[in-house]
User: What shape does this take?
Amino acid sequence: MNDIVNDTPAVPVQVLTAANFKSSYKPIWCPGCGDYTVLSSVTKALAIMGVPPKDCAVVSGIGCSSRIPAYTTCYGFHGVHGRSLAAATGLKVARPDLQVLVAGGDGDGYSIGGNHFLHACRRNVDMTYLVMDNHVYGMTKGQPSPTTEPDWDSKLSPGGTGVRVFNPPVVALASGANFVARAFAGDLHGTADIIAKAMQHPGFSFVEILSPCVTFRPEQRDWRKLVRAAVVPSTDDAGRAARRLMTDDGLNIGILYAGNRAPYQASVRAAGCSVAELEAEFAL
Assistant: This one.
């Protein structure tokens, strides 16, 4: 018996690189801003994931870091201040087939968007939230943000605010995030690897990225010398992670918690009526 030979030509598999995810728009951040490197880490992470741009959406709010959707070739949504997670949650629930990435900053995410941050962690919808934290409002010229040190002296807050800082990883863990990590913008490849692992992990993943604002916080150039890899491996024990995070100085880099909580699954039901019938109920 002759062997059956399949003459159908093999379909070539497209190998995606970071360049496939970079749009033609030129970033307009200040020279030296850490967000340039974060953008490169994002496109590299998407290439690692191998998800075509048409199957990925990048959602943001307002702020320097929230410009990122325009600089990628993925579907993008530039929302209003603090509401990126609300928009992204609706998108992921309606289109679970999409890889949803949310980009924001410490002002957008922890101040006006703080309530959405808490509940996004609690709901545990399968998406990834990247927050570029520079401890200052960079777009609006240097006001203190929720993560600004209480003794940071500036023209806009002489002597400092005296207010305790917001602790994002602790809040994320306590609120139910299934993955908590910290990266440093100056480490392009390390940040890309953490972002890729966050996207691969089921449930709500939160990545705090230390991204220096050399315009209003030039002293943050020293972060490169201060950050270090976390000496303790990641854990799926929330209690152990909480004890670690409560004593963390904010400069340990790596995956700090990788939980096993099942992500939120939306129930899909068949439509109970047609669009015409629905419109008829609202007719005057």
